[in-house]
Amino acid sequence: MQIITIANQKGGTAKTVTAAAILQAGAAQGLKVLAIDLDPQANLTFALRGSTKGKGSYELLEGDPARQTIHETAQGIDIIPSSKNLATVTTSQGSARRLQRALQPTRGIYDLIVIDTPPTAGELLYNALQASTGLIIPLQADIFGLQGLYQIADTARQFKKSNPELTVKGFVLTRYDSRSTLKRTMKDTITAKAAEMQIPYLAEIREGVAIQEAISLQQSIFSYAPKAKPVQDYEKLFKKIMEG
Ligand SMILES: Nc1ncnc2c1ncn2[C@@H]1O[C@H](COP(=O)(O)OP(=O)(O)OP(=O)(O)O)[C@@H](O)[C@H]1O
Ligand SMILES: [Mg+2]
Questions:
Q1: CB-based contacts of 209: which residues, under 8 Å, 6+ apart?
Q2: Tens digit of pLDDT for each residue in 23-71?
Q3: What are the C-alpha distances in Å from 85 to residues 52, 68, 244?
Q4: Alpha helices, DSSP H only, in 11-91?
C-alpha cells in the first residue's frame, strides 16, 4: 500500500488538483482510497466535497483515533478533511511522527492514501513526509518551478534518515504547454537537473479548462470530462504511479 504526499513549498503548482486527480483515478478503478487534507486552505476538502463539520486532520494530529476523523464522500473517496485549527499546528506542539503513528491502523484498510500539503515548509509538511512511502512533486515549467524542486528535494532528503520508506517518486510538470518554446526549454533544463538529484520525470499535464470547471463543480475530473487532455494525462500518471 502506498502513502503518497503531494508537495512543493512553492504555491499554486497544482498540488491539490494532482492529489484530487490521483484519488479520483483510484476511485474510478474501484480502489479503496483515502484523502488527507493537511492544508488549512482546505482546497482538497472542497474539491472532493468533503465535510468540514466534525473531526479532521487537526484532531488526527492531536491524537484522536483515525476512524473518528474519516468521512465518506459522494465521489467514493474517504477523506480526513482540513480544518481552520490546522493553521495553529506548530513545531513546538510536538514531533513530525504524529501522522505516521495515527495512520498505522488505516494501513490494512486502504489501497492508496494521498496527502495534500500546504505551500510551506513546516510541521504539516514534515508530518506528511514522515508518514509517506512516496513523494510526488508537481511544478510548472518555469524558473521558479526549478527553484521549488531544489527546495522540496532538500526537505525530502532530510527525512530519508528518519523515514527509510520514503521514495521520491518523481516530478510532474503541470499546466504544461508544449507549444511554448520557453516551456519546452525549461522542461529539458528541469528534467536534467532533476536527474542529477535522482528525481525521475513522471508526466506532463496539459493545461485545460475542464480541470477548473470540474474542481469548481466539486466533481471528479474523470466523470466530468474523461476525454479532456489534462484528464487523459492524469490517467497516464495514475497508471505510472501504480506500476511502481
Ligand atoms: N492542468 C490544468 N489546467 C488548467 N488549470 C489548472 C490545471 N492544473 C491546475 N490548474 C489550476 O491552477 C490553480 C492552482 O492549482 P492548485 O490549487 O491545485 O495548486 P496548489 O499547488 O494546490 O496551490 P496551493 O499552493 O495554494 O495549495 C487552480 O486554479 C487550478 O484549478
Ligand atoms: Mg493546494
A1: none
A2: 999 999 999 999 999 999 999 999 999 988 899 999 999 999 999 999 9
A3: 12, 17, 35
A4: 15-28, 43-47, 57-61
Would you put residue 42 in left (φ > 0), alpha (ψ -120 to 50) or beta? left
Q: How far is the CA of 11 from the centre of ligand 1 (A)?
A: 9
Q: Which of 211, 216, 218 to mutate to test the pocket of ligand 1 (most atoms within 8 A of CB)?
A: 211
User: What residues make up the domain containing 121?
Assistant: 2-243
Number of structural domains found in the chain: 1
- Show the ligand 1 pocket: residues with CB < 6 angstroms: 11-17, 39, 41, 43, 119, 174-175, 205, 207-208, 211-212, 215, 230
Q: What is the CATH number of the domain that holds 229?
A: 3.40.50.300
Q: What is the largest CA-CA distance in the chain?
A: 51
Substitution site in 5, 6, 8, 17 for ligand 1 pocket (most atoms within 8 Å of beta carbon) = 17
- pLDDT tens string 138-186: 999 999 999 999 999 999 999 988 999 999 999 999 999 989 999 999 9
Which atom, in ligand 1's list, is nearest to the CA of 212? 31
Alpha carbon 115 to chain centroid distance? 5
Please say whether the beta carbons of 243 and 206 come within 8 A: no
